[in-house]
């Protein structure tokens, strides 16, 4: 007999497992691999006791620390504070990556240690697929979370300023970061800058005045065709306009930004004299100090609505698309947004918000529609949908939005955002021709209306509240009401 034959005959055979033993080992594989998927390293303890115990202990410590942090500040505040801090995100990203790799090691090692030696064919493929799926359950969320953290850190760096605006209300390092600051006023500018326009002209201008204690907010809309624009006593333009920017319909609010840019020499070292003059004018118009500014251009608005998946609007009047007025005639109309409840994409939402050529009363009708649009966007924000679309939203923000809130203040703003959400009250007062005389405005009256909107006077107990809309505004049998220009909840203005 040959040497090869003797070797084959003498070699001990691998003992074959019984069906019951094979079933027991298979169950052990699945249970322990699943255990390491739920708790990193838990399934490793039978085969690599010290490694498994260290991994489980580290996970428990991290979990307890995380829960304690969430309970100490609240879930929303905690998430917002981490999400608006570049330093916290810089720590979070490598922690996510390293944690996911350690967790992945625990799953792979557990699967390898507990794979039955003689398993083959379909049972082996099933075990490999199970282990791969378990690894994917850990890696996919970690990769997505790290990706979103990188995107968010980039957004903070590119959108938010690192310099505090002059005279801005500053949060303090205290349990309540807004202690000592009663209100914060933010100028919101929708810019129509474009290749066919000279400079920046605010297409939409609003001020959000926020009570830092309650979160209650009031939005004030300023019409583009407002005349006799006041300037502060220390404005460099006062020498040229001692009585304010006042020269009839040639000196409208919409030209104030350009006025600043045309007189940039009077603002040495100022990177944006147009914004400076606009903030000064808005402050004088409303009688409010402007603390911060947010600017979004029209292209950004279009992309923002598209990134949100559109916006549902109850359209009250027919609105022309692509239209403008030339020589007193409406031209360029490419279509219409018809009355009724409908979902608008970014392009049509933009025309709904800014079209004025074929409206009942031009700019004022547009201001009402802008208020409806803001209310609809606020009302329809879905956190789950926003998270899913966040990469698109972030790209829009970085390209089209500028905010001068300092990065170091964002954690305080996270607290304020939560108060706004908890307060549940966002009201709006547009300064239309039904509220003020835009050609000859009485700014004393305007300041009183602003103060009353911020701090409503107490009504007599015997006085019946008056309706904000006249009954005659609604024809008999019609469900459509005339939109009010008085102070009203922004989510119920349309």
List the helices and strands and how they pair.
Elements: H1 3-10, H2 19-38, H3 49-73, H4 75-83, H5 86-114, H6 121-159, E1 160-161, E2 183-191, E3 202-211, E4 217-222, H7 256-262, H8 273-286, E5 292-297, H9 298-307, E6 311-315, E7 319-321, E8 324-326, E9 329-331, E10 335-337, E11 340-344, H10 346-354, H11 363-380, H12 383-388, H13 390-400, E12 401-406, H14 410-423, E13 426-430, H15 443-454, E14 488-489
- Backbone CA Rg: 32 Å
How far apart lie the N and C ends?
Answer: 100 Å
Which geometry do the CA atoms define? elongated
Look at the helices and sheets and give the structural class. Answer: alpha+beta
Average pLDDT, rounded to a whole number, is: 84
Sheet-strand content, in percent, reads: 5-15%
Q: Can you tell me the residue ranges where pLDDT is under 50 for at least 5 consecutive residues?
A: 1-9, 194-198, 460-480
Query: Main sheet?
Result: 8 strands, mixed
Spatial strand arrangement across the major sheet: 1-12-5-2-3-4-13-14
Q: What is the count of DSSP helices, taking H or I runs of 4+ residues?
A: 15
The H-and-E topology, N to C, reads as HHHHHHEEEEHHEHEEEEEEHHHHEHEHE
The residue fraction in helices comes out at 40-55%
Total number of beta strands: 14
């Amino acid at each position: 007999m040959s040497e090869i034959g003797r070797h084959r005959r003498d070699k001990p055979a691998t003992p074959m497992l019984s069906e019951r033993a094979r079933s027991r080992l298979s169950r052990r594989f699945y249970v322990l691999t699943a255990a390491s998927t739920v708790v990193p390293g838990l399934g490793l303890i039978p085969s690599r006791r010290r490694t498994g115990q260290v991994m489980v202990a580290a996970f428990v410590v991290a979990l307890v620390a995380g829960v304690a942090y969430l309970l100490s500040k609240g879930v929303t505040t905690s998430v917002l504070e981490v999400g608006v801090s570049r330093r916290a995100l810089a720590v979070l990203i490598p922690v996510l990556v390293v944690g996911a790799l350690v967790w992945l090691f625990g799953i792979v090692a557990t699967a390898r240690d507990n794979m039955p030696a003689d398993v083959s064919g379909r049972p082996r493929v099933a075990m490999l697929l199970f282990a791969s799926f378990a690894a994917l359950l850990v890696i996919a969320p970690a990769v997505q979370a790290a990706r979103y953290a990188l995107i968010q850190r980039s957004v903070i760096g590119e959108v938010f300023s690192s310099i505090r605006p002059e005279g801005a209300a500053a949060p303090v390092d205290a349990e309540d970061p807004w202690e000592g600051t009663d209100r914060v006023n933010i100028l919101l500018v929708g810019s129509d800058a474009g290749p066919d326009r000279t400079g920046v002209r605010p297409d939409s201008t609003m001020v959000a005045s926020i009570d830092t204690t309650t979160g209650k907010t009031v939005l004030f809309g300023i019409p583009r065709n407002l005349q006799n624009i006041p300037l502060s006593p220390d404005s460099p333009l006062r020498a040229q306009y001692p009585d304010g920017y006042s020269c009839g319909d040639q000196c409208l609010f919409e030209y104030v930004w350009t006025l600043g840019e045309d007189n940039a020499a009077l603002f040495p070292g100022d990177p944006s004299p147009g914004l400076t003059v606009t903030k000064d004018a808005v402050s004088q118009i409303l009688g409010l100090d402007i603390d911060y500014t947010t600017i979004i251009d029209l292209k950004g608005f279009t992309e923002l609505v598209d990134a949100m998946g559109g916006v549902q609007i109850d359209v009250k009047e027919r609105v022309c698309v692509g239209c403008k007025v030339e020589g007193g005639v409406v031209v360029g109309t490419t279509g219409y947004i018809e009355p009724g409840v409908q979902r608008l994409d970014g392009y049509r939402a933009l025309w709904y918000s800014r079209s004025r050529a074929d409206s009942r009363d031009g700019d004022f009708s547009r201001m009402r529609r802008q208020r409806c649009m803001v209310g609809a966007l606020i009302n329809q924000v879905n956190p789950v949908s926003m998270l899913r679309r966040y990469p698109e939203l972030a790209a829009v923000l970085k390209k089209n939005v500028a905010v001068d809130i300092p990065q170091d203040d964002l954690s305080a703003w996270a607290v304020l955002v939560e108060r706004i959400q908890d307060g549940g009250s966002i009201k709006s007062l547009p300064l239309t021709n039904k509220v003020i005389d835009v050609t000859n405005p009485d700014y004393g009256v305007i300041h009183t209306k602003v103060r009353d909107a911020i701090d409503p006077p107490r009504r007599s107990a015997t006085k019946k509240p008056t309706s904000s809309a006249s009954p005659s505004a609604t024809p008999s049998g019609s469900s459509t009401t005339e939109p009010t220009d008085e102070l009203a909840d922004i989510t119920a203005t349309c």
